[in-house]
Amino acid sequence: MNIESKWLEDFLALAEVRNFSLAAEKRNVTQPAFSRRIKALEQTVGAELIDRSKTPVALTPSGRLFRMTARTLINQIMDGVGQLSDLSKLGGNNVRVAAAHSLATSLVPSIQLELLAGKHKPVLSVEAIDVDEAIEELQEGGCDLLLAFDDELLRLPPYQSLQIGQAELLPVCACDSAGKPLYRIATNKEVPWLAYSPSSYMGRQVEAVRDQVNLQPVFLSSMTDLLKSLVLQGLGIAWLPDYAIKHELESGKVAIVGDDSLRLPITYYAYRYQARLHPAGEQVWQALRQHADLKLS
């Protein structure tokens, strides 16, 4: 089997932008030549990788699997070249991270200083997206690392997982000028509820206690920071992770409402494939491991 590395890079570019014209421009070739190279790759691997019937084009099931293989092969090639020429390509020392919104804003800054001290000086390229979309990014080979919550499938081969920390989802609301909660949870009175989208990870956790409280949804979002902003405006209660509201709790801007049974434990992890990452990616993984050891010790 004779697969050219430029075909792999072509395929990864197309998988990212989902458009032949844009991908060809990104790869600095004409669209006809680009299309021929993608076709040659498909013929070589013996499978259709691109579903051309859709707009934008999509990866076939074989294409999604091959995207992981292509990224691994490119990583290994560039790692070897980098060791010989003291250069690391694949975006230099760029490390692509997909992360749940709340983890991106709270966890990533906490490890940035540790990364500056390392040999390879990785540059994190962080995409903060919905948890389920972030998981799909890892499964389709769209990122080097994933920061997300507990997922049983991702803790099994061919993935590696690293428990980064534990937290709680806390039912909170804003406080008045006297420092008292604006709302109280009671069974005989509806409370305005700033809810996570039911299909989101956080939304599924809150559903576990949904029948214990009398809530009236007034807003839906999968973004913790957005719900937090509305809580601070006094528009209702929301279940927010403790790490996202630490300062607000300490300053008395928000208060926990309800009894302890409404506090929901959550665990968050870093995930990757078992295949070796490029040197900068491995350094980020080790920084996460050290961070986890400190948090959980």
Task: Outline the fold blueprint.
Blueprint: H1 5-17, H2 20-26, H3 31-45, E1 50-51, E2 58-59, H4 61-85, E3 94-100, H5 101-106, H6 108-116, E4 123-129, H7 131-139, E5 145-149, E6 159-174, E7 191-196, H8 201-206, E8 215-221, H9 224-232, E9 238-241, H10 246-251, E10 254-256, E11 264-273, H11 279-296
Commentary on this structure:
It is a single chain. By secondary structure, this protein is α/β, with parallel strands linked by helices. It contains eleven helices and eleven strands. Strands 3, 4, 5, 6, 9, 10 and 11 form a seven-stranded mixed sheet that branches. It has a two-stranded antiparallel sheet with strand order 1-2. A two-stranded parallel sheet has the order 7-8. Helix 1 (5-17) packs across helix 2 (20-26), helix 1 packs across helix 4 (61-85) and helix 2 (20-26) crosses helix 3. Residues 86-91 have low confidence and may be disordered.
